[in-house]
């Protein structure tokens, strides 16, 4: 609409510029007007002022329109995206990040019916059987400390898997250690005061489930089963 108005104004201006001298000449010749040089100069000067004012107003209106459009675009807030609520499993992954500082070799699960959080570690590079069991204690304490902060988690299950070779030379990944401890028993311990102390019996007696593969159990060194945090 503004562009159309500007084109119409421009047409009027062009018309005045082209036909103004012709009009003066006709009025002088046929209407016997007494047209002097002063009158012509005054008329031309007035015409220039009209053209300048029209052009200035057009530019001002265009500038104001552009400014208003820019302000409207700037002031219009963008729609905010609502973050999707974290599931319990999502929170358990965060607990793993905060406790073990890595996700390599780990997986987490949540059983809503039993309100149990599981963390499973698969490894093939344990130094020896004792370090494997000691690692399960570390995982239980570090991960349990974070997981039990999550609403809906009443027990923590730690599973350590490693590779075993049977009597026929066949290799397979099996559970080396399984520990299940509920929140009530876990909270009884001051784990920091048990650092670098043997905790095999304490953890075994406080657990709802405690399993060590027979091939691991027969090679354990009780002196190495301390809590490393």
Layout of strands and helices, then pairs:
Blueprint lengths: L1 H29 L6 H39 L12 H13 L5 E6 L4 E7 L6 H19 L7 E11 L5 E12 H4 L13 H7 L2 E4 L1 H4 L12
Parallel strand pairs: 2-3
Antiparallel strand pairs: 1-2, 3-4, 4-5
Helix pairs in contact: 1-2, 3-4
Description:
The protein is an alpha+beta fold and 229 residues long. It folds into two domains: 2-75; 88-224, no CATH class. It is 50% helix and 17% strand. The chain contains seven helices and five strands, in the order H-H-H-E-E-H-E-E-H-H-E-H. The chain has helices spanning 2-30, 37-75, 88-100, 129-147, 183-186, 200-206, 214-217, and strands spanning 106-111, 116-122, 155-165, 171-182, 209-212. Strands 1-2-3-4-5 form a five-stranded mixed sheet. A hairpin with a 4-residue loop joins strand 1 (106-111) and strand 2 (116-122). Helix 1 (2-30) packs antiparallel against helix 2 and helix 3 packs across helix 4 (129-147). The radius of gyration is 44 Å and the shape is elongated. It starts with a helix and ends in a 12-residue tail after the last helix. The model has no long low-confidence stretch (mean pLDDT 81).
């Amino acid at each position: 609409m503004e562009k159309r108005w500007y084109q119409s104004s421009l047409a009027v201006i062009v018309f005045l510029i082209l036909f103004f001298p012709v009009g003066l000449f006709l009025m002088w010749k046929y209407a016997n007007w007494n047209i002097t040089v002063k009158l012509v100069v005054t008329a031309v000067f007035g015409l220039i002022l009209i053209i300048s004012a029209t052009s200035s107003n057009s530019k001002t209106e265009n500038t104001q329109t552009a400014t208003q459009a820019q302000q409207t675009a700037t002031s219009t807030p963008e729609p905010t995206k609502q973050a999707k609520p974290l599931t319990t499993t999502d929170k358990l992954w965060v607990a793993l990040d905060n406790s073990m500082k890595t996700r390599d070799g780990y997986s987490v699960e949540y059983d809503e019916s039993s309100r149990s959080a599981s963390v499973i570690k698969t490894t093939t590079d344990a130094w020896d059987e004792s370090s494997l069991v000691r690692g399960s204690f570390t995982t239980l304490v570090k991960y349990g400390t974070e997981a039990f902060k999550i609403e809906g988690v009443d027990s923590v299950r730690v599973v350590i898997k490693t590779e075993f070779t049977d009597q026929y030379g066949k290799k397979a990944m099996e559970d080396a250690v399984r520990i299940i401890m509920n929140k009530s028993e876990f909270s009884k311990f001051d784990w920091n005061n048990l650092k670098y102390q043997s905790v095999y019996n304490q953890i075994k007696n406080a657990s709802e489930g405690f399993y060590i593969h027979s091939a691991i159990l027969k090679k354990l060194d009780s002196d190495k089963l301390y809590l490393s945090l």
